[in-house]
Structures are given as structure tokens and as C-alpha cells.
Amino acid sequence: MAQSQDTRPKEQDVETGAAGHGAEPRGKRTEDGQATYLVAIAEALWEEMERDERVYLLGEDIGVYGGAFKVTEGFYDRFGADRVMDTPIAEETIVGMAIGSAMEGFRPVAEFQYADFMTSGFDEISTALARVHYRSGVPLPVVLRGPSGGMVRASSFHSINPEPWFAYSGGIKIVCPAFPGDAKGLLKSAIRDDNPVMYLEHKWIYRRVREQVSEDPDFLVPIGSANVRREGDDVSIITYGAMVHRALEAAQTLEGEGISVEVVDLRTVVPMDEETVLRSIEKTARAVVLSESYRFVGIAAEVASTIAEKAFEHLDAPVVRLAPPNVPIPFSPTLEDAFLPGVDDIVATVKNLSAW
Amino acid sequence: MATTQTRQRKDTDPRLSDDELKRALYLVKLCRYFDERMESLYRQGKLPGAIYSGRGQEGTHIGVVLPLGPEDSLFPTHRDLSAQIAKGLDLKRIMAQYWGRIDGYTRGRDGNSHIGDWYGNKTWTVMSHLPIAYPVACGAALAYKRRGEPHIAMAICGDGSTSNGRWHESLNMSAIAQLPVVWVVNNNLYAYSAPNELEFSVPTIAERAAAYGMPGVRVDGADVLAVEAAAREAVERARGGGGPSLIESVSLRWKGHAGHDPAKYVPKELLEEYMRDKDPVKILEERLLSDGVVDDQEVADIQGRIEKEFEDGYEFAQSSPFPEPEDFSKGLWVEDGYWTSEPGRGGGTEAS
Ligand SMILES: Cc1ncc(C[n+]2csc(CCOP(=O)(O)OP(=O)(O)O)c2C)c(N)n1
Ligand SMILES: [Mg+2]
């Protein structure tokens, strides 16, 4: 897949030299109240910790160091070692310990240094976390956070989009915000939710996207609700995470060519907001389902089959998936750019579809 | 139980020939120089991806590999590029890997020290998840044992990685099955920002060996010859059918976890102490000079050779093509033939 120059990370980006780690301090809101995604996530954690003393954090290097991406910078000083708990490199135990303490009334938020390392805790997540409530009625208000996604030249072990693996388990809500406001509101909802929630924060977005974000301590974005980010009439792009930004850029380009694109940001992938998706298809009659996660047995496949099943009579064209094949995310710029759906690919796909 | 071993070159009956000692000196100096130059290129924004410096740990990395033969296998981590160099990775292809080029060992599929050359020198293709190669080393060792071959497997990981379940499962398995493995822990006192006391609550990692039923030894990573002696004993034990051993080699990670990390959490005095008194490169060089194994001219020649090798590697990497974009999904399956097709330059685009 060809890659638009515009969205390609520049060689000199800080993240390209650090496997996506945040070298710099987390930063603050701007004077007029704009927050980066990174700041929005930190605010959500901070506010929920202030609000509810049962909430605590655990993970690797989150204490004095403030986390690999600096999400928890300053938390250790405010909340102390008990509530900002540095753990050894023991992901199965991090998850299991979160589960046990949740059973005893705590509300743990576990940080994975990268979402890639969730697979090192796979059994406790997919077997225990996903199934305790179903078989015993004991709620597990556990949040698992982790930086996911590529686009920062971090290669196979620091770029994964793990949501399909865990969507398959059932029993775990999965949230993938694309904007700072959603990031904040969804994380607060996740912490207040009595079910397990996996919260995937895209590392490409962390320091790149900034917007006005509510300062209301009870500002929540409901889990399970999609959002029409851009209204349009001709083709719907259903997507989530960092691909929302590429979709919006493609929509802008296509507008200049007379094609009106609607962009639906799923925001939550489990449970999926079918209603918002189907409403959009009823309007446009054409759907491109775009994801950064793999194509085969993926989130895009699920959305596409839902549309085919439930909106068949509204469709004027086949539903199209645009997603990378199931191969490890490569490092070399030529390979990573070919691997990821680019703005050019989105534009071409939408054009093809609108010609139907 | 945990003992610290040291060895004086002036001891009677030195085990290593002068040529072997010179090779050790060449390797520690090469790895130090490579590490420093790569960091400087990274700081200038000329090197893409991440760097994981192994500076200060050359004594461990070179010492443990010296007793290995070409048929012995090595299973290292992100931090252990120096060990891979000692095992035979080619500087040119390493540098092509850092720059994402087709001549890199992963053909651009990965960068930096996430590298290996199984068919070339029996080194595992390093993966991040810790310590993912420990169980794999059990499997290689199992194969040697089953076939009655005299080879051994060596795995290396950091102090922090010993907190992971896989580490414990692997030691246990290897002891039960009496596998020919040498388990090496590069204890550089930190796991990213976490000091040893946040990782384990026994005084040493070496003493854990007793819990699995194998010998364990703690050595001073500043002394490459002491490390070599401990490793040789463990390697010979494994080769002779005596089963696995654990070696904990202690040093300090002189740089941050990766290039972006200034490591402010490492006390300044600790770093100064290690850099001043426990520099494995300086210690070996001074010892070989004072024992008359090398003279100043020879040291200068070694250094000159290293610098030339680096320049050649850099040139090679810069002129190596990028992989063809459309090849990004190849190599997943045996049947697509990508990895049996011509390696390197045959499969790339024009060099930039
Ligand atoms: C399972 C897993 N969790 C988290 C990480 C992220 N990570 C990379 S290196 C590192 C610290 C490793 O410390 P140590 O084992 O002491 O090795 P060192 O880097 O010091 O050589 C961490 C936490 C990882 N690679 N794998
Ligand atoms: Mg370490």
C-alpha cells in the first residue's frame, strides 16, 4: 500500500529515536485549556485517584520514573508507593494481582509498558480476567492500559494492536480512543466500570493531537458508543484509533474531488456500537472499514460482516475492508509504510467504492 | 554458596593463550567503540529506531561467549549485542540492520539489536518480550542431548528478566532434564528504572540456583577473565553431561535503558565508581599491558583496525538498499521462498 507523505512520521520525530518512548516531560495543558492525548490520560487517572481511594496503579517503571511514556509522571509524589506500585517484569502476576485485589474491593489500573507485553500476561487476561464474573458473579473492576499501535518505527515488538486477541475472549470491554477528550472521558468511564476494561492508547497520538478537553471532574464518555466525527453523504469510513486521523485527512482530500465522506470513530471496539454504524450506512450506502489491526479475524472483519448482515438492503456496493495483513509489523521505513494503510490507500479505496 | 572468582594472569598455568587474550581485548574494545559511535550517531539524529547500550557490561558479554564453540548456540536479549558480536555477527550486517536495510540480518524486518543469525553462527533472533528465549534455549539443549552431540546452549538475560515466570520455569525444566545449558544473568543493577531491590528479595541471583538443583556462581563483570573462567567451567560441565548452571555476572548499565533515557535514577556516585574502578575494557587492557601480552603499539593497532571496521560497516550500511516495499509480507511462510532466495542486495531497492 502506498503511503501519503503527509502522515508519515518525520525522521527527526522524538519517538522515532526511542521505540516510541516519551523522552520529554509529559507537559501541561495550554493556557487556553487544550490538552494532548497524553495529558488527557494522565488527568483522567489523577482525577479518579483523587475521587476514589480504592483506585491504585501498578506496572513497570511507573513510580519514580513516571512510566515509559511519562503518563504517571508526578503521581508517585502525590499518591505514594502503595497507590503507584512499581512491579517487577511479571505480567501474568500483574494481571492476577489486579484481579485478586479487585475481588477484595480495590479498583486497580495496570499499566503495560507497551500493549505488546499484554501477551506476556495472556493466560491471566483471557482465562481469569475474562471469566471470573461469568462463572461466579464476582465483578472485576480492573483496567489494563497499554500503548498500542505503530507509525513510530518501533517494529514488531513495540507496535502491536492487540485488540482482536482479547476481543475474542469475551468478557473484556476494549476501548481505543483517537482524541484527547475521548481519551479522558473513556478512561474515567473505564475506571468507574464494574467490568474489566482494556484501554488501548495509541502511542502515535500521545503528543501529536491536542484539543480542548473538559475539566469537569465528572466528564465521562460512555463505553460502547461510537461517534460520527465527520458527516458525509457518499461513503462511510468506519474506523478507530490512529486510523481516524488518516481517515479524516483522506476525507478532506476527497471533498476536493467532490466525494463526501462520513467518518465514524468507533471509540470502543467491545461492545460495538452497531446502531451508529448502521445508521451511517443507511445514509451513505457504502462502507469502507479501516483498521490498523490485522485484516484476518480482525475488528474490521467483524464490523464488515455486521454491516453485510444487518444493512444489506441499504448497500449499493460491497463492504470493503482496508487493514494490514496478518504479518508482524516491520521496522524498515519502506516496509512499515507499505504495511500500514496510508492516506493514499484510503483515498483510492473510497474512490473505487464510490464509482460502484 | 555464591562465590566471587577472580583470576590473575600471572597465575601459574594461564588457561588462555596470548592470541586468545588479544582476541578478548580486541572484542571488548570493538564493542565499546561500536557502542560509543552508535550512540553519537543516534544523538545526532542520524540513526533511526532505538539503541540499547551495553556499555560497562563488555566483561560479561565477551567473557561468557569466549568459551563457546561455533556449534554452541546463544540466546541473548536486546542488551547483548556485544555477546552476539563475539559469537560472530558481522559489523557490516549489524549496521545495515540498524538502518533498516536489506543487508541487515532481519532484512529490514527489525532494527537495532533485535538481531541474530542462526544458520551463520547459531545466534537467536532477539525478541523483546523478556525472557522469551530462555525456554527456547531449553529446546536447543534438548536436541543436543537427544542426539548425543557435544554442543551446549547459552542464554543471557538481565536481572529484571529473572522476575518473570519463564525464567523460573526454564531453570526448573533444565535441571529436571539435565539439559546442557548455561544460564547467564547480566546483572547490570537496573531493569529500566528498577534497581535490584525492586526486582527480587534475595541477596544474589546466583543463590537461586540451589532452589532448582544446579550450581550457581556470582562473578565480577568488570573482570572479563574471571567471567570467562566461570563460563568455561559451566560450559564444560554442560558439555560433559553435568547439566545446567547459572552464572550471575555483575556490572552497571552505564547508560540509560535506551537512548532516550538519561537514567537520572542511577545515583551519580555509583555510576562514577563503576566508570572509574570497574571499567572492563580498561581493566583488561591494563592487565595485558602490564603482563606484557601486548604493548602500546599493538593496542594502537587494534584500535586502528576497529575504527576502520566501523567506517567500513557504516559505508556498507549506508549503501545497502532498502527492502522492496511490496516484499513486506514475504517470509511468513516457508513456501513463499523469501528466506531461501538470494539474501541481501538481490532483494532491495536502490540505495538512497
Ligand atoms: C515481558 C516484557 N515486559 C516488559 C518489557 C519492557 N522492557 C524492556 S527492557 C526492560 C527492562 C529489562 O531489565 P533487565 O532484564 O534487567 O535487562 P537490561 O535491560 O537491564 O539489560 C523492560 C521492562 C519487555 N521487554 N518484556
Ligand atoms: Mg538489568
Model description:
- The complex is a heterodimer of chains A (356) and B (352).
- Chain A is α/β, with parallel strands linked by helices and 356 residues long.
- Helix content of chain A is 35%, strand content 16%.
- Chain A has twelve helices and 14 strands.
- With 352 residues, chain B is of the alpha/beta class.
- Chain B has one domain (31-336): Rossmann fold (3-Layer(aba) Sandwich).
- Chain B has helices spanning 18-43, 58-65, 81-87, 91-98, 118-121, 133-147, 165-176, 209-212, 224-239, 268-277, 280-290, 296-319; strands at 73-75, 153-158, 181-187, 190-191, 194-195, 216-220, 245-250.
- Chain B has a five-stranded parallel beta sheet with strand order 1-2-3-7-6, sandwiched between helices. Chain B has a two-stranded antiparallel sheet with strand order 4-5.
- In chain B, helix 9 links the parallel strand 6 (216-220) and strand 7 (245-250).
- In chain B, helix 2 (58-65) packs parallel to helix 3, helix 4 packs across helix 12 and helix 6 (133-147) runs parallel beside helix 7.
- The longest helix of chain B has 26 residues, at 18-43.
- The model of chain B is unreliable at 1-9 (pLDDT under 50).
- Classes of the chains: A alpha/beta (356), B alpha/beta (352).
- The structure holds thiamine diphosphate and magnesium ion.
